[in-house]
Prior knowledge:
Layout: E1 6-7, E2 17-21, H1 27-30, E3 31-34, E4 37-40, E5 46-50, E6 57-64, E7 75-81, E8 89-94, E9 103-106, E10 112-113, E11 118-119, E12 122-123, E13 138-145, E14 148-153, E15 156-162, E16 170-175, E17 180-189
Antiparallel strand pairs: 1-17, 2-5, 3-4, 4-17, 5-16, 6-13, 6-17, 7-8, 7-16, 8-9, 9-12, 10-15, 11-12, 13-14, 14-15
Amino acid sequence: GKGQPISLFNGVDMSGWTYFLNGDQEMSDVWTVADGIIRCEGRPTGYIRTEESYTNYELTLEWRFLPERGAGNSGVLCRMIGEDKVWPHSMEAQLQSGSAGDIWNIDNVPMIAAPERTNGRHTRGQLSSSEKPLGEWNSYRILVDRGHLRLEVNGAVQNEAIWCEEVPGKICLQSEGAYIEFRKIMIRRIVN
């Protein structure tokens, strides 16, 4: 079963999160909070990450790109371990516009994804894009359960992987070249 939903973002500030950037900028130069939303400027590259580690969980969050700022790239890194760098050992749930639900395997994480959709570290989603138009909020549901990874974008199951490395790791949100907004970041630990 799953535990109670816990908010990883309090809607007010970045409590519970730290950051890593390719450069000497401060967190607040890239990530700001207003109106219950995390706003990421996208440059320089890097990420915010949870201070706590999580092993087995269901993570839900909402994101959007804005029409006036354009389509772009980001991602959610799961079970991130090891040193902070661009990019750290983790399983990436892709957020690049048009490709949300793709899996990127960063730094040789043990996992098996659909071979017919996998090229190197990248596994394409199984459906055409289930994203909403720029400016509208999208929902991600990411299941990280022992050896199983499943990515749902706006209710459509886009991807799954099995035999994933099971380690406690951080959850990261990428700054990857584009302005993006996040909100409603909730986790439910899997307890059975």
